[in-house]
Amino acid sequence: xxxxxxxxxxxxxxxxxxxxxxxxxxxxxxxxxxxxxxxxxxxxxxxxxxxxxxxxxxxxxxxxxxxxxxxxxxxxxxxxxxxxxxxxxxxxxxxxxxxxxxxxxxxxxxxxxxxxxxxxxxxxxxxxxxxxxxxxxxxxxxxxxxxxxxxxxxxxxxxxxxxxxxxxxxxxxxxxxxxxxxxxxxxxxxxxxxxxxxxxxxxxxxxxxxxxxxxxxxxxxxxxxxxxxxxxxxxxxxxxxxxxxxxxxxxxxxxxxxxxxxxxxxxxxxxxxxxxxxxxxxxxxxxxxxxxxxxxxxxxxxxxxxxxxxxxxxxxxxxxxxxxxxxxxxxxxxxxxxxxxxxxxxxxxxxxxxxxxxxxxxxxxxxxxxxxxxxxxxxxxxxxxxxxxxxxxxxxxxxxxxxxxxxxxxxxxxxxxxxxxxxxxxxxxxxxxxxxxxxxxxxxxxxxxxxxxxxxxxxxxxxxxxxxxxxxxxxxxxxxxxxxxxxxxxxxxxxxxxxxxxxxxxxxxxxxxxxxxxxxxxxxxxxxxxxxxxxxxxxxxxxxxxxxxxxxxxxxxxxxxxxxxxxxxxxxxxxxxxxxxxxxxxxxxxxxxxxxxxxxxxxxxxxxxxxxxxxxxxxxxxxxxxxxxxxxxxxxxxxxxxxxxxxxxxxxxxxxxxxxxxxxxxxxxxxxx
Length: 673
What we know:
By secondary structure, the protein is α+β, with helices and mostly antiparallel strands.
């Protein structure tokens, strides 16, 4: 039975191999400190944080996330360690909340390796604090216990670490925030929620929501009662009108009003209720899978997640597969690590006894340890193979059913291309896989409109065996940019997406041919210093005008000639041909552009920009790095695996790109008439 702790309460731990799971509504940083019998942290080497996530017997998350799993092997901790403090903090310099009082109360659970909860604690009562000691694991009379602490610090990590006696507290807090910023720059953002009360559920509409699940199935609806005469189903809150069934923006869902609404009595002074009698205020349930045969796993169904449309259901299902695969691999790796550490411990015990170093007794003990290790690894592999088989079967069903914006270029859906009338939810940028899953990949979907620009790296990659010819990599990088730009043009309605190109030296002319020959560009690629300056000046002015109009509440007073479509700027061969003013304008577009519909796609090698020093570091971090060849640089937002990214490229000798761009150009011409 799970012990629900309150602040100051303790509980014995029945095992030394365990996990601490942290759930929060927003992205937070998780870490841990080790301290001796006097409660003193001896140095920075006794602090586990995203910049140094692994210590003996302890592993924390490598980046900020809404969900964390911290792994502990208490027997593997140094003998001098008598206390482990679990720390939570809000990351700085990422635009999120700055105090815990502005977010939902974090929930912390201590579980065994099998997922069984031993104790849990909800950190309530926090306000101005930005860092908190959530739990404390400590030795008492040879056994380990857990205590709910909940001690917050308004001064953040620096104040928390200082309170624990660490002299280098401020420097370490700065390095932690720096590691978090770098981790966010390489991470795939989790899908944001679309409605305040909805959470994703892949198995059933009524399943319990989690903080990392952006959608839920329909909740129970009221079948009796009525809306009072003077109560409107739209309740004004501090941010304006809210959705039906919510008391305030982002608040908990309330029971839906009755389908039959009582009309006000004659002469009653109440607002007229315009709600539709049969209006549905929650997402419809997912389709039901066919019943499984006895002893057989359930057959996967495309679109088994919740959502208002099949597109939304498939989007949720893909993200569910991504999360399931991340968790499955994390469990497998944790089990293998446990088997390795157990065998090492048993072998150390054999070697520590002089009597067992020679003779048959020592050999037998070593063989027994290796046999146990092999058994544990085989069990973990069997569980992994079972889960991978289920996910592979699901992927085989989901991939052919994906809509155009989510589909690969070799999907037949592109051959029947028709210009869409609505902007899709998301766009496919490529595929993600892990070393254990070479035959299974998950589509990498990003929400539209783009929340951050893209940097297509034309430099060296981290995977061995990839292309060594730098000129070929640069050509592939530009081909990748063209493929992504063509996909964006194709999935937006005619006239609602505009592409500009800056190619100072004209080195990308051959790759840009599909865009230039089809006539889908706003203008020919800008070349030379004059062309670069002209394009950047026009786009920065557009950002300024739209920002001023929005801030002044005068969005309808924009100049009549202003293109209100979403704008994409492709920049090739940066930083060659760019002066300091142009670099400043690019940084401005990367930071301010996405909020007003101006997006940046840079094709560049970061090493080429080394002459600018750290000036361009904020620019690179504000962009999502993708590569033209497979590269293991992206991290998931749950457990921080290093995923191998594979770009979504047009198959060799395929004419699908030219056919789609020709159809896009024809649709734009007919729309402009």
